[in-house]
Amino acid sequence: MQCRRLILILMILLSSMYTYTFGQSTPIQFDSQTRVFRINGGNTSYIFGISNANTLQPLYWGARLGQTDNLGPAHVGDGQSAFDLPSGITPQEFQGWGAGLFYEPALKVTFPDGNRDLVLDYVEHHIDDNTLTIQLKDISRDIFVTLKYQVDPATGVLGRSAVIVNKTKEPVMVEQAAAGTWSLPDSTDYWLYYLTGRWAGEMNVQHEAVRPGARVIESRRGSTGQQNNPWFAIERGNSNDQDTGDVWFGALAWSGSWRITIEQDPLHQVRVTGGYNPFDFGYKLAPNEQLETPVFYGGYTHNGIGGASRLLHQFELAKILPQEPKPRPRPVVYNSWEATEFNVTEQGQEVLAEKAAKIGVERFVMDDGWFGQRKDDHAGLGDWYVNKEKFPNGLKPLIDKVHALGMDFGLWVEPEMVNPDSDLYRKHPDWVLNFTGRPRSEGRNQLVLNLARQDVRDYVFGFLDKLLNENDIVFLKWDYNRNWSEPGWPAVAPDEQKKVYVKYIENLYSILQELRAKHPKVEIESCSGGGGRVDLGILRYTDEVWPSDNTDPFDRLTIQDGFTYAYTPGVMMAWVTDSPSGANYSRLSTEYRFLSSMQGSLAVGANLNHWQDEDFATAQHLIGEYKEIRETVQHGALYRLVSPANGSETSATESVAADGNQAAVFAFLHSSQLGYPYPRLFLRGLDKDAQYHLHWITTNPDGKLPETASGAYWMEHGVDLNLSGDFQATAFRLEKAH
Ligand code: DGJ
C-alpha cells in the first residue's frame, strides 16, 4: 500500500515537472480548458482565444507574461449601442466582412447569388513546433480559411498569413484579403511611425499620433513603391529616446500592390490590418481553388523604436535573406552607372576595372547599356543579347579581365520591361500590360511585360538562365524602372484579369527562386529606380537593395536613417559618387562621401577617370578600414545616436558587433552655427565594465579622446568630437580589450 502511494506521488511529481518544462520550452501552447492560444518568442507573448461566439479573439500582445498568467477565456460581450454591435466592436484575429463589421475586414467576398455576408468560426487547429495553423469556416457556406502563425523563438517576430479556400460548388469573388489583424493593448496614447517618399527621395520617417479613424499606407502601383513602404511601428507614449519605450511593429512581405490600415475605432481600440491592396482587386476563386495572402510579420520590444529596428534587422538576417541564417558580408562593389551611363564599352569598362581593383574593390558591376540597341533609354529593353558594337567579342574578355584583377563580375538587367523600340515588342506587342484598344502609357519610354502570363514568365526565366549559363556572372542588379499603368490582361476572361496583381508577383518570385536554385553562387540586388521595391517579400530572394537613385552623401544620411527603421544596413547599398553631382550639386570631400556610404554596404560609383591621386589614397585607406568594420556595420546592432531628419545640423550612428567586441561610430556635421561645439555623443550598447581601445577610421584623427576607456566612459561621460565648419565628418572604432 505504502509503495503504491509512493509510486503515485512520484508519478504526480514527474508529470508536474513535465508540464513545467513543456510549458517553458514549447513556443506555442493551447489551453483546452480556457481555449486560449499562447505564442512565446524572444521577450514577447502573443495570446488569443476562441470566444463564446466561436470567433478568434486577441487577448494580449506585448512583453512575455508569466507561464501561469491566465487571460482567458475570450468573450464576446454586449454591443456598445444599437450602432455598434458586438460583432463589430470585438477585436478578431481574422474578421470576415459580415454581421455588422464596420472596421477593416481581413476578408471580403461576394458569392454568385449576391450574398456578401461572411462570418468565420473556429473549426480546428494544429501545433507543430513553431507553427500554429487554425482552420476557420463561414457559419453556413464552405469558405475555409487556414490561418498560419509562425514564431521566431529568438526575436519573437511572428509571421502571419491566411489561405482562403473555396469549397463551395460555385466560384466566389474575393474582393479583399489580408494576412490578418494585429490588435494592440488598449491605450489612447499611441504614436505611429511610417515611411514615405518619392523617386530620389525615399524613406522619410513620419511620426504622428494615432487618432480616431484610419491611416492608410499603401501602394496601388503594382509594385512596392517609393511613396510608402510596407512597414509600420507604433509606440506607446511619445518617447524622445530611441532605445526605451514599448513599440509594436510590422512589415508586409509583398512586392505588389499592398495596403496597411492603422485604425482607432470609436472605442479607442487600435488595430493594424495588412495584405493585398483591395483597390481594383478581385480574385475569382473557382471551386477548390485557393488564394494565399502575403505574410505580415509583427513584433514587440520594450527597447524603443531603436530596439524595434534592431529586432527586425536580426530577424531579417536570420530568417528572411536568401543566405539566412548567416548571410555572407556584402563585398565592396564598383558600379559603372554614374561614370558612363549607357556608354559602356569593353575598353572603357576595363579601364575602370583596373582603377577599382587598386583601391580594394571586390566586385565589378557593369550597369545599363550593354545589350540590344541600347544607346539611351529609348531602345533595347527586352533584347537581351550582347551589343556587338560595344562588346565585339561578347562579355568574356571583360569578365576575364575583371577576374584577372581579383574581382568578381556582376551585370545589370531589367527583365520585366520592354521598350516599344525593341525586337521583342515588335514580335510580341501583346506581352505587355494593356487594355485592348486603349493607349499604352510609357514611363521612361518603356512598358511593363505582363509577368503573370506563362509565356512571358518562361521568356524572362529563359534569357536570364542562358545569360548565367554562358557567362561567369555572380551578381545581377535587377532593375525595375516604372510603375504600372493600364493593368489589363486581355488574354484571359474579363473576370480573371484582376488576378494579375497576384500572379505577376508570384511569377516574379518563382523566377528568382528558380534562378537561385539553378545558379547557387549568383547573388541579386533589388533595384527599382532606387528604393521602389524594398520589402520583406523581395528580400527572401535578393541579397541587397538599392535604396535610392539619389547618391548625394548628405541626402543619403536621411534616406539611410529612414531605411534602417525597417531594414538591416547589411542590405543597404551605398555608393560613393562624384562631387559635385546628383540631386544638390554640393561639394563634399572624398572622406565625407566615404563615411556616409560606410554606414551601409559600401560601394563606389564615381567616375574613377576623374579622380586625383589623393582621392585614390583616401579611397584605398577607407575601403581598408571598412573591411575591418564591415561585419559590425552590416550584421551588428545599430544605434541611431542623432537623427539627421528634419534639417538636423548633426547626425551620428553607432554599430556594435554581434559578439560585442567592436563598435563603429560615424558622426556628421552639416554646418556649424554661432560657434557652438559639436554636441556630445553618448554611445550605447557597450559593456560598461569592459575597456575599449580607440582606433580612428578617418585620415585626420581627433586627438582629444582617450586611447582607452571603459564602456561606462564612452556611454556615460560621452564623446566630444572636434567637428566644425560645413559638411564635416569623422569616424572611429572601439575594440574591446581582452
Ligand atoms: C535606375 C537605377 O536605380 C540606376 O542605378 C541605374 O541602374 C539606372 N536605372 C540604369 O538605367
Task: Give short descriptive properties of this protein.
8-stranded parallel beta sheet; 738 residues; Immunoglobulin-like; alpha+beta
Q: Tell me the name of the CATH class of the domain at 29-320.
A: Mainly Beta
Mean pLDDT: 95
C-alpha end-to-end distance? 62 Å
Name given to the CATH architecture of the domain at 29-320: Distorted Sandwich
Please give the oligomerization state of what you see.
single chain
What spatial form do the alpha-carbon principal axes imply?
globular
- The fold-level CATH name of the domain at 29-320 is Beta-galactosidase, Chain A, domain 5
Helix percentage range:
10-25%
In percent terms, what proportion of residues is strand? Answer: 25-35%
DSSP summary, beta strand count:
36
Assigned CATH superfamily of the domain at 29-320? alpha-galactosidase from lactobacil brevis
Largest sheet: 10 strands, antiparallel
> In angstroms, what is the radius of gyration?
28 Å
Which molecules are bound besides the chains?
A: (2R,3S,4R,5S)-2-(hydroxymethyl)piperidine-3,4,5-triol
**SS-derived structural category:** alpha+beta
Which residues sit in consecutive blocks of at least 5 with pLDDT less than 50? Answer: 8-23
Q: How many helices?
A: 13
Secondary structure elements and pairings:
Layout: H1 2-25, E1 28-31, E2 36-41, E3 44-50, E4 56-63, H2 86-89, E5 107-110, E6 120-128, E7 131-138, E8 143-151, E9 158-166, E10 172-183, E11 190-196, E12 204-209, E13 213-219, E14 228-236, E15 247-253, E16 258-264, E17 270-276, E18 283-285, E19 290-292, E20 295-301, H3 304-320, E21 333-335, H4 337-340, H5 346-358, E22 363-366, H6 396-404, E23 408-413, E24 417-418, H7 423-427, E25 447-448, H8 454-470, E26 475-478, H9 500-518, E27 523-526, E28 544-545, H10 553-566, E29 573-576, H11 590-597, E30 601-604, H12 613-635, E31 637-642, E32 650-656, E33 662-671, E34 691-696, E35 708-710, H13 711-717, E36 726-736
Parallel strand pairs: 21-22, 21-30, 22-23, 23-26, 26-27, 27-28, 29-30
Antiparallel strand pairs: 1-2, 2-3, 3-4, 5-10, 6-7, 7-8, 8-9, 9-19, 9-20, 10-17, 10-18, 11-12, 11-14, 13-16, 14-15, 15-20, 16-17, 24-25, 31-32, 32-33, 33-36, 34-35, 34-36
The protein binds (2R,3S,4R,5S)-2-(hydroxymethyl)piperidine-3,4,5-triol (DGJ).
